[in-house]
Amino acid sequence: MMRYLAVFVILAILGAAAQPLPAQSSSTATGVSNSMNPAISVNGLFLGQVSRDNPDHEFNNINVQEAETRFTSIVDPYWKAALTIAGHPAHSHASPHDAGEDNPDDQAVEETSADFIFHIEEAYIDGRALPAGFALRMGKFFLPFGKHVPLHTHQFPFVHSPLGVSAILGEHSLSESGAQITATIPVPWYADLSVYGVDGRAGIFDAANKNYVFGACTHHLWDIGQNSTLGLGGSALQGPDGRHPGESIQLNIYGADLTYKWVSAGQSKGPALNFTAELIVPDSEEKEGSPLGWYFFTQYRPHRNWWLGGAVSQAVDILGGHSDHEKDESETPLGEMWEYKFNLTFAPSEFSALRAEIVFSDDRAGDEDDLQFYLQWNFTIGSHPAHLY
């Protein structure tokens, strides 16, 4: 109880110490003020997909992958707010690694053109002008774990999440309600440290458990010459294990990531190269085997509007997937699964992209190999905020 009280005391002190920033003028030539209107953006993802080995309609269709509307605005001199509402087709399971078809506890939802689910993806406020370089975020937000989890779907470098992420953390991002404090670290390079406490309602956690989920992450970024950067990150979170509801079993997840980016300094939108690798290691009191997930991908821009991408990902000793229902683990044996991805993206501007992708899944423990083909169209309209670096 004392640790929760301490968190609220710290938040109250930071809020009280915040210095207000100058408010924007609300006067206009017409007398109608736009300063009271939030910046609005809409993103749409359309996806066509074909599977060589899976005949289900869910893997052979043309549909809206996701539609997202985002509102951002300055609330007052002390706060900035953001709200993101996203909708996507209903699926028969949360991820390709969830429980099998014979599990009677699965609440399956057959996908049809009428089954479309909307939900609040983010709804938070950020403190402005906090003292000593601190940043405060309160509300519902993506957990700052690693490189992939904080991304919105339209920011993914490939059509879906890497296998090494989705098998451990779930196909959908970890969006939780709580508070986060970030501080810059006084070192010669850029570095920050974030700590957070959230409610823990994602499928990987036991939502019925009264204990909160706590986590931390740190990012470090170095300039390497005039046209490249190197980034290192570390993450950790702790909460009640969703695989054992009601048993008060602790789940710890650790992560490390590496990012290298290079862009030609000789011309605008010239050749560019990105490389990202991430390792995720879950550690539960009831774990079996040595579970882990990892991925790395590279993207190369040979021409100003074209990107080539390739990725490899692996999940080891992962029992099924995470959801809100208890699984029959005997039907989902421990094993090893690999995933290989290649894509070609035409991005004429920051507001649209057309992507063709091929994915091969190699199940080393069973017979769930698959070859999938995707064609994705991504567009954005309105005032969209900058993407994460």
UniProtKB/TrEMBL annotation:
The keyword Signal applies. InterPro entries: Porin_dom_sf. It comes from the Bacteria. Residues 1-18 form the signal peptide. Keywords: Signal. This is Porin.
